Predict the structure of GPI inositol-deacylase.
Amino acid sequence: MLNNMENERRNNNKNEDARMRGFRPSLRAMMLVIAVIWVGVAALYGLLKPVSNGCIMTYMYPTYIPISTREGVSSVKYGLYLYHEGWRKIDFKEHLKNLNGIPVLFIPGNGGSYKQARSSFYHCCYLVSKLCIALHKLLSFLQVRSLAAESDRAYQGGSLERTFYREAYLTSEEGGNVDVADFQLPNRYANRLDWFAVDLEGEHSAMDGRILEEHTEYVVYAIHRILDQYKESRDARKREGAATTGSLPKSVILIGHSMGGFVARAATIHPHLRKSAVETILTLSSPHQSPPVALQPSLGHYYESINQEWRKGYEVQTTQTGHYVSGPALSHVVVVSISGGYNDYQVRSKLESLDSIVPPTHGFMISSTSMKNVWLSMEHQAILWCNQLVVQVSHTLLSLIDSRTGQPLPDTRQRLEIFTRMLRSGIPQSFNWKMQSQSIWSTHVPVKDVKDTAGSQVHNLFDCPSSVHWSDDGLERDLYIQTTTVTVLAMDGRRRWLDIEKLGSNGKSHFIFVTNLAPCSGVRIHLWPQKGKSSSDLPAGKRVLEVTSKMVQIPAGPAPRQIEPGSQTEQAPPSAVLHLGPEEMHGFRFLTISVAPRPTISGRPPPATSMAVGQFFNPDEGEIEFSPISMLLATHSHKDVLLKEDHPLAFNLSFAISLGLLPVTFSLKTAGCGIKDSGLLDEAGDMENTKLCKLRCFPPVALAWDPTSGLHVFPNLYSENLVVDSSPALWASTGTEKTTVLLLLDPHCSYKASIAVSVTTAASRFLLLYSSQVINLNLMLANSYYYFYFPIVGFSVAVILFALMRQAHARPIPSILKAVESNLKIPFPFLPFAVVPILVSLFFSFVISQPFPPFFSFTIVSMICYLFANGFVILLILVSQLVFYVAAYIHVLIKRRWQLWEGNFCFLFLQWFMNLSSKFFSLKVVRVLRANPLFIPISAAIVLSTFVHPALGLFILILSHALCCHSSLCNDSKCYSFFLGNSYLTTSFRSHARKKELSDCKGEGNYLSQQFASKPGSPSKENSSSYGQTQEDTFHHRHGLLMLHLLAALMFVPSLVSWLQRIGMHQSFPRFLDSFLCICLILHGIFSSESLLSSSLPFPRILGQEVRLNFVYLIAGMYSYLSGLALEPYKVFYAMGAVGIVSFALSILQVWTGAPLSILQVWTGAPRFGRRRHWHRH
């Protein structure tokens, strides 16, 4: 007997282990979860560590003058203010009366304030406590000045000092194939800027489409109010007899930060906006392509509609028959987008691009890393107070004013030309030496004889002006260079001759020159057809060509310092570079480098140390390629490259994997600098060698170019992370994935270069680039504090839908964890799920004539994203299972205590109280509600989704799923065995649970009383096993739906946060699109029952198979996968809504064609009457 009991116990344990196996993750799943956690932690470490951006603070003394709001304005909670710079108290009315400048309206971004130009530290402290506010007052000198304060100072100080570096001009694609010689930047500004700002109450416009629309409507009102204010001010001056000069402004310049930039564009096409009220828009770190938190369907739809209207706005308006109606509605609008570069974690440069929205003839995007006089990457908030950028933008806006009218220039091309010349640098957009076109390093500008302001004849646009002309007598004596490398260490007043024919032989047909001397005032470069003392000595047919102004400016590193007092100063970093190709030197015999003959030029002192190095070189000798394998191996061990002395001055480093995806740490170590047998010394000798070489060799400089974010300059490159804000391996990516870096090294020194890949940096870049596909980590730094939330989008929804497809196909229903793990089996079904959507996306690209992304990298990265999405979903499933197990364990313990208390006084008193309340439960309304327990939660979910907020309705749906899962888990007899073990008490609990279930089912008229009611006596093993299998299947099915709807609810969390912020203010109903899709999800949760999984749809057979619900899940998963590839995660709601509609229609079809199903049966997944399931494990 004991042996029989022992065998029975072992058999029960084996059965329980088999039943619980679906709840335990496999080794493959655990490894994937560990990888996801490791990458997430590494990425957070890389994202949260402090970043030194090199920005200088700007200080201000602000005064905000409120502008009265007229009656009848719907958005009375918002406000309009006029900014005044100064610490003295002023009369607001008198100041408004004298308003006569150029109106500029600043629009804050997500969670921003009209005082946003002030230190973000202020708002952070305000949110923490009053103690921090006191600390802020103590540190009030740290308050920064906004664009308004700096533009006021720029107006008073005049225009920027003119330099003679090469300027950027419009390309032929941008309409620059016209004469630009007659257009010059102003020497002084004709009018000042009047800065206005809207107070949008710090609402989170990046999270809700309704808020964006309200902000747009108020900005339209603010624009009209500003223009009317100028008329009121002019009329007030007329009434007082004051002189009124100039014309009234007809347009307002819009400056938007973050989401404020998109609001500016939305207001420009608003149907109520006056004609030509907006002609110039400048955006700072503003997402234009799609919202950074693209999770709400109405928000994504609003973005699409605005961008579509902008595309139509630049098209000629015609009738259906093709007859001309009018010109483009936005032909007068110029838009310039400035991005913060790779340090802007919130809005990537890809989202800030204006491609396919604004044509190149009316706008462009530029990164702060490639802006003239800026050259820095900055965080999302730092772009508002970074002095280098603020100064350049202020002078750019002042340059837009016409000196004749005192109003902004009306010509679109002239305004775009000013933006180009003031913001862009003259550095080329390609470093491909093998291309012989002159456009590589020089913008195509017509070379013609023109006159400057003094009336003197100037040969071409690259000549120096006559005001800084050197007399040939000023040069002491000429030097004739016999080597391919020429060096200048002092302003010695000499002219150096280089024989192009001799030195440029043996393939060394390119010439490059770097210096810290200013062009024209410090150094000049000429091309001579033959040797002569001066240009006047040459025949009339042979003229000297000056190419000095072809030098492009690059950011210089830190100023040189003395290693010891009285010792020699370190070599200065270069601040300009010149490149001449063979075509540019064709027809000339000599090249001369003339250094300034006097210690001061134009009244300015020379630099502390002077340097210039030029070289004829062969581009092929400077090519260094890093293959994908070598870059991946650099994650474990760094790769070294030894560069000997007399190496090329310019190197082309070609990285096979984009530095936007895999940043590298590039380190340079000086190995020698002309000292014989120096080699690599010991550590002490190496330090002395490095100090000595810094006195002779200029600091290295690296220039990287990316098609998306533009130029990235890394001065003083001894150890630096080389990264560009690229967006490789995306569906919208085009072109090559390689990154080319131009490295400028002093040829007198030898270097030991090494590259290494930082895992944390690479993980951070991966998370930033592909977060909207896997886990959208939004570090909302608005108001200087962090919002951390992890909405699962794109691929994660596809993973759940694929798992639901497997649940709908398999019998018995596997757990959602087992379904996800089954989909990861290689090669099938993993490869079809991961690769087929990629092929479909490429087919769509072919159909719509869209350029194909790089196939190899696009496929590999997409599959990695899909794997990481699986890992994150598994992690989420494990956490939810842990919660259910803990809740079930507590539930069982409470039941155990309850039975132990059945005989004591407290239990009798509680039972008496429950009998007393039976009268209430005997009411007809209560009995109806008890018979249909889901009526209240379903009704509440639909009402909340329609009239309050969709997230609240989804939370109620999730709660219903959780209660159903908890009930099924606790009623499963095997779960009792799992929690309490095999004992007599377990058996009693099983009997008690089954009796209660049968009594409940009889009270509700449920079929379970007939299905599982046994004959007199003990219940049969078959019925008990079938009942346990039913509870287990119900748990698995509802758990899968819970995961899907949990993801949907989390996607609405940002919108819910913004809704909670507006409680007590003017509220409006949710958008119809959001409510409709959420109701579809609720219908999916109600009508997606176990009985529907095996029902066929009324569609033709596919490959001889009936179309069932699993096919619907498959199509929805594929669509969600494609939404992730397209960086449009909000579109997964369309797939989930379609599944809900199909489930609802299928349930209605079952009612029409068979026995009616009650809502309770549908909810619990009950099969029809008279049908029995015989599911067996094989």
User: Anything to note?
Assistant: DSSP finds 34 helices and 31 strands in the chain. Residues 102 and 1167 are 74 Å apart (CA to CA). The chain has a mean pLDDT of 78. The two ends are 31 Å apart (CA to CA).
